[in-house]
Amino acid sequence: MVWVRAADPQFIRAHPLLSGYAARILYDKGRISREEMRDTLSFYSSVGNAPSDIAYWFEGFLRASGSVLLLDDNLWQLVNGWLCGLSDANFIELLPVIRRTFSNFTTAERRKLGREGRIRIERNRYRNRLRGTFLQ
């Protein structure tokens, strides 16, 4: 199947934009597990890859996904986990790529994503405070 081969990190001849998009389609269809998707995301975003390849892969992966990120908690956690797991140096290096990808979302999607991010941060802080209270 062409989509499976294009998403496979070992099939390097596929353009990163196509590979990222194929990976997302396969993930959405349940053909790639969350762990496989996390590994693929990590592979394509590693600093050994050219920044342009990372940009194209990430753009393909999140193509037309602003609303999907808001509705699919697993996808949100996957992307958020990847972003939070980046070292400071890698995050700074990839920041232009990330900004470019998110700039393709509509203004309303970006606003909703920002609001959702703030809500999740506050929710986690609240949970951590509760855990701290119960642990004392």
What string gives the helices and strands in order? HHHHHHHH
Biggest beta-sheet profile: none
Percentage of residues assigned to helices: over 70%
Radius of gyration: 16 Å
Q: What is the number of beta strands?
A: 0
Walk me through this protein's architecture.
The protein is mainly alpha-helical and 136 residues long. Helices cover 77% and strands 0% of the residues. The protein is built from 8 helices and no strands. The protein has helices spanning 2-7, 16-28, 34-44, 51-61, 66-71, 73-85, 88-103, 107-135. The chain is globular and about 55 Å long. The mean pLDDT is 81.
Secondary structure layout:
Elements (H helix, E strand, L loop, with lengths): L1 H6 L8 H13 L5 H11 L6 H11 L4 H6 L1 H13 L2 H16 L3 H29 L1
